[in-house]
Amino acid sequence: MATAAVQVSVPAPVGQPDIGYAPDHDKYLARVKRRRENEKLESSLPPGFPRRLDSDLVWDGNTLAETYDWTYRLTEEAIDEIEAALRHFKSLNKPLGYINQETFPLPRLHHTLRSLSHELHHGHGFKVLRGLPVTSHTREENIIIYAGVSSHVAPIRGRQDNQHNGHPADVVLAHIKDLSTTVSDVSKIGAPAYTTEKQVFHTDAGDIVALFCLGEAAEGGQSYLSSSWKVYNELAATRPDLVRTLAEPWVADEFGKEGRKFSVRPLLHFQSTAAAASREAKPESERLIIQYARRTFTGYWGLPRSADIPPITEAQAEALDALHFTAEKYAVALDFRQGDVQFVNNLSVFHSRAGFRDEGEKQRHLVRLWLRDPENAWETPEALKERWERVYGGVSPEREVFPLEPQIRSASKGESVGTQGGGGY
């Protein structure tokens, strides 16, 4: 599979373990062996953490298709209703920030989309909506349809960038496509989402990640999902010490974005039923949440891990690889087609992508929304509230921006191509 033309080599900070963005299975096994031989590893889980989670959110992608159909295929009647909603919104002459359930009415499809939200939060954690008519619409019309349909699944859109064309804005839509052939200096690319390279398992920011496929690659680019609850069960049974490592504070590189050098928070958060009851949270609130992007601990291309922040530890390096390789073991592959919208519970499901090759008119091009549904939303862990506030706090219709093309920022630490929106796809 072809990848971006130039790979950038960057020095690791002093004391950083031998680990890169691309997981190396041989190095992982060597690290496992070395630590088992030379360290006394914890044999118990953190206090209060469950030995096993039982839920529809625990699934094995190798057998999931036998019991769960994750694709909802739009009928002709549903598409007609969507087309009518598009015409209605355009007749209002309102900015795109005013797209919502009222301005994009779907009286019959609404119930189905609300059921989809329930499946994301209380079922298997993901669903694919298939059949939106991309080729018969302009780019702006496709974005209106995407945002309009998504507003019935989760009505709140999150901020993925705070600038547009050099001016303050709530940028709520991001384009995910290869930019390595269009930027003048590929060493400034800071996230794999903007290359043709394989992307490892990770999470974004926010509750729900929605991805709309505008164009398919000539080859490759498959989407992979994996249950983080399944990954937890395996680690809890076989490597409780790594569960402890994941539940401890980690120094995540912020790459200078918005003036932030780094943040410190655990990657793993567990909310027990008892703790939820004391906060008068929803009764089904016993939940496990893993939030991480590997590149914030290893760096990537033009954004190496900063030399003036603490390196990660050997235990953390092993934990990163354990997350990836265990997720890979239980992943499901999705056939992502033009016109598909993939909705994923970002709090319980990891996502990744295969490398791909574009050619001629076959260009892989996704657009992304970060969404939240107040009716079904999970309680945000205390350690993530500040980050969630940066995503969802203060977003207003007047300031919402939906770029029609990818944003290419000026290159600097924190403004390399691909820093917009964090993890990326």
From TrEMBL:
Transmembrane segments: none annotated. Residues 406-425 are annotated as: Disordered. InterPro entries: AlphaKG_dependent_hydroxylases, TauD-like_sf, TauD/TfdA-like. Keywords: Dioxygenase, Oxidoreductase. It holds the Pfam family TauD. The keyword Glycoprotein does not apply. It comes from the Eukaryota. One of its GO terms (molecular function) is dioxygenase activity. Residues 94-370 form the TauD/TfdA-like domain. This is Taurine catabolism dioxygenase TauD. It comes from Neurospora crassa (strain ATCC 24698 / 74-OR23-1A / CBS 708.71 / DSM 1257 / FGSC 987). The lineage of its organism: Eukaryota, Fungi, Dikarya, Ascomycota, Pezizomycotina.
